[in-house]
Amino acid sequence: MSILDPVPELPASVDARQPSAARAYDYFLGGSHNFAADREFADQVLAIAPSIPAVTRLNRSFLRRAVRYCLDQGIRQFLDLGSGIPTVGNTHQVAESAGVTARVVYVDNEPVAYHHAQHVLAGSETTTIIQADMRDLPAVLDHPDTRRLLDFSQPVGLLVVGVLLYFEDPQPAELIRAYRQRLAPGSLIAVSTLTDEHASPALRSEMEMLRGAYEAAGEPVYPRDHAEILSWFDGLDLVDPGLVTLPEWHTEDPNELDDVARPLGYGAVARLP
């Protein structure tokens, strides 16, 4: 089964007329797991904020490098919160491309992401997805599939990439603090999120219109500044180079450093001491 195959047998509860941020993200990445309403919404976003597809690509590139770093540090199990639709380049694929067997639990509350990932991952003994709200820790951490695949007495790679922008304060800090209490020393936490702190006037204007579009769609987004995001890592050991724009973190493609969307995202990886 190709990861680009159509979404199979979606439940009747999925309203294809209501756009979804997760499915719009898939569209921005060039995926096929989206509906006409998602594409219409995404095209509206593109018209007012043309840099957004670049942000999604930079975010996915950061995820790939963060997972590779975790693998290099000996991490062999991952909890990927708000993982979204399994477009090319997800966590388990990064591990496979590195020739490493890793256990991965994806978590997403979006029905399309959940049902398509279930189909794609059917038969896998090392990777699964659970449908849960990442804010409900018992639903995530005590889920039978989580308990089956992840050993929390050993280091885990916790991935919170590109999802905290949808949560109001103080939820991001509280969520990271709550999850880290369940992780073993040596675990690594990767975080990326949206910012407009150093955006040019033109990019800042795009961001304002973007926020309006997402709020109108019922999924408001919240850009943060460096100081606030850095506070989420209190008590953790930041991996060099610390909290930086997405392309700056363990850069592989120097061209990304010149990307117009570079000022719109921060990312970091930190170790639980």
From TrEMBL:
Pfam family, one: Methyltransf_19
InterPro entries xref list: SAM-dependent_MTases_sf (IPR029063), SAM_dep_MeTrfase_SAV2177_type (IPR006764)
Keyword field contains Transferase: yes
GO molecular function, one term: methyltransferase activity
Superkingdom assignment: Bacteria
Keywords: Methyltransferase, Transferase
One GO-annotated biological process of the protein: methylation
Enzyme Commission no: 2.1.1.-
Coiled-coil intervals, chain numbering: none
Protein name: SAM-dependent methyltransferase
UniProt organism field: Saccharopolyspora rosea
